[in-house]
Amino acid sequence: MTKTIKLLALLLAGAAMPVHAEEAAMDAASADAGAATDSNEIVVTGLKFDRTLQDTPTSVKVFTAEEIEKQNLVSVYDLIDRTANLSSTFSESGFNIRGISSTNVSGTGLGDLATVYLDGSPLPREASGGGPLDLWDLDQVEILRGPQSTLQGRNALAGAIILKTTDPSFDWKGKARAMITDADGEYRFAAAVGGPIVPDVLAFRVAGEIARGDGLIKNSVTGGDHAKSNSEVLRTKLLFTPWGADGLKIVASYLRDRHFGNDGRGYSFTDLPNAWKRRTVEANRDTYTKTSTDLFTLDASLPLGDVFTLSSISTYNKLKTFSTYDGDLRREDEAYGDYSTNQKIFSQELRLTFDTGALQGLVGAYYSHHKNPDYLANSTFSLDLDQDLGLTQRVAGFLSLPPAQGGAGLDPATALALAQQVRAVYPERVFISSKQLYPFDIQTAALFGDASWEVAPGLKLLAGFRYDREKQKVRNENDVTLNTVLPDPAFYGQINPLFGLVVQTVNGLLLSDVDNASSSGPQRTTTYKAFLPKGGVSWEVAPDKTLSAIVQRGYRSGGSGINPGRAQAFTYDPEYTWNYELSLRTQWLDRRLTLNANAFYIDWTDQQVTVQLSENVYDYETQNAGKSRVWGFEVESNFQATDRLNIYGSVGYANSKFLDFTVRNGQAQDLSGNAFSGAPKWTAAAGVDWRHPSGVSVNLNANYRGAQFQNVIDQDLGRDVPARTLVNAKIGYSNENFGAYLVATNIFDDKYYDYQYENAGRLQALLGEPRMFGLTFEGRF
């Protein structure tokens, strides 16, 4: 801990050190670049009270519409891979913030640990792999690192991503874009147009995009593309500012989003020659996901004099998914299935913001209702009788029992030998089919507030709170059947009566496991309450140089479920974090150089983890059995060197460790000291953007993700997902109305993967994207 404190202190002290010599040396250049003005300051809106980036102590990375265009960013995952202490996971089906997965670190749960919000509406986790995450016609994206539970609630223990689409205006504006890339055959066509319907009263904006792609993987069985994808997005917005309403502003929007496929990526065999370029599967079943999103929002604000503003945001999201998969990717039917959801999410938030000059902040109330009545999963898979069900050891234990307890009274060695003989008459694996219905209904209500009070010139006290109450209704129905024909005890009993009796007993054990895995539990209702405080101080130590310290509590609600192996209901409590954070905000050289830093320590208790209770693979449940900590920092900079040249960069470090975590994987295993899975320690990004008055522009950027562990077990051999570095470029010409660009990603063809494992005797991996070239054409008025 001493080393940690010293490192954080050195980082902040070094970043705060005066640079008068550099300022003097750059005086001449400042005339060329021009001083920054208030009009081009970045404003953070995701914290529900507009503040400039430099006045925001929360660790936040902001991508403006201009930056998204300059770097040719297409999806939210493009932003994630360019942000310190963020990285995408499992082929862009999720992400982590500061080493913490957006869904789960080591368990299950009804809530997420980080959430994406689109125009104020929370998107469920199913949207992460195929939902409305494209960046076309977005005005701004804010990535908030660290607990946002005070303002965002149950699903923001690790952070949040805030997406804001472009609002209508009373000036006619329009733009269009066409993109094509070579390796995956993807093409995209997009357009947006808007303007006044009634001048100064009613305006509209319509934006849409279609995309098609063949993907990167071929199916040698069907001869076609295994990872094809397509999407269609249509967004309409209305802006209403009625006459005589004294500042009333209403924005209504509707989003229709349809995604099909797996976005061009998925598992492919890596035990074949030239597997990086010739990505192949041998699947006899389709693998794809259909996601449809219909999102309605109504955002209204009304100034109440010079101090107060009343705001309301109402959202309704209807999201349906259907997925089907070939789990072994081979001709054999050893693992396959499908699942579907039909979710409806309604949320309503009211906020009263205030600004007296010295005192700024907000108070608010929040309500949401999240229903998923049709969560249905069907799967067929095989289980190894020993590795998954521990059959031999269980039979030997049974034979060692005295006859009074139903056993044979054999000594352990004889019992084990007989168990092994009986095991030999069974197949290596048995096939199981499962049909699971898991509907849930979650209602959340909360009161929250956040404020800053300038008690002396340059010195502010920071405070916030949230009182959160959640009511869950959960039901579980699981119907499991055994598809494998078992040996006939009567046949073996004719040869050896004891042997036949043991076979009969083994059959009973297997059928009992299956019967126990089948369950039909009544609806369970649980209620969770949490108080989440926040406090801190902010001190402007010099003009444009502010140091802040904040302590706040993070939270994810508890839940309930069914232990399949025991057909028993279980509940688990909420988990909490205390987050201790230092932040530094500095600007230099007439505000042309921005250097910001955050250092953090997260203390995580009552962590929700999956616990295996016995050798039976079905015998598991979620418990509050974990404790961990994460510490690290982010440093980000932006330098407007001249009016033509911009240089930017960032580096992040996140060190995760379980302090208390024991699993049972055949035997009790203490994982204390292990790191989180999918959590690189180091991330970094850098880029330069050069624009000539003639219209020629060059953007060159790179991002680095450090090595990581694939899982929380077996970490003695080191991090098994190697580091990777991606270098990208966008070069072209543009004028006021037109632009044409050559785009290249992963220029040096860095061969990397997100996950790799042996499946049914074949090595498979989620490979990253290879080097790709593309063309982009843009028009605007």
Describe this structure as you would to a colleague.
It is a single chain. The protein has 781 residues and is mainly beta. The protein folds into two domains: 682 residues, TonB-dependent receptor, beta-barrel domain (Maltoporin, Chain A, Beta Barrel); 69 residues, no CATH class. 12% of the residues lie in helices and 54% in strands. The protein is built from ten helices and 45 strands. The strands form eight sheets. It has a 22-stranded antiparallel beta barrel. A five-stranded mixed β-sheet has the order 3-9-10-7-8. A hairpin with a 4-residue loop joins strand 39 and strand 40. The longest helix has 21 residues. The protein is globular and about 95 Å long. The relative contact order is 0.13. The N terminus is likely disordered.
What is the compact description of this entry?
This protein has 781 residues and is mainly β. Helices cover 12% and strands 54% of the residues.
Name the features:
single chain, 781 residues, mainly beta, Maltoporin, Chain A, 2 domains, 22-stranded antiparallel beta barrel, globular
How much of the sequence lies in strands comes to over 45%
Q: What is the 3D shape? A: globular
Outline the biggest β-sheet.
Answer: 22 strands, antiparallel, barrel
CATH level-four homologous superfamily name of the largest domain? TonB-dependent receptor, beta-barrel domain
Helix content: 10-25%
Using DSSP, what is the number of strands?
45
What Rg do the Cα atoms give?
29 Å
Number of discrete helical segments: 10
**Which CATH class of the largest domain applies here?**
Mainly Beta
Which residue ranges are poorly predicted, with pLDDT under 50 across at least 5 consecutive positions? 1-39
Count the domains: 2
Give me the secondary-structure category: mainly beta
Which fold does the CATH topology of the largest domain refer to? Maltoporin, Chain A
| Average of the residue pLDDT scores | 88
CATH architecture title of the largest domain:
Beta Barrel
First and last CA, distance: 57 Å
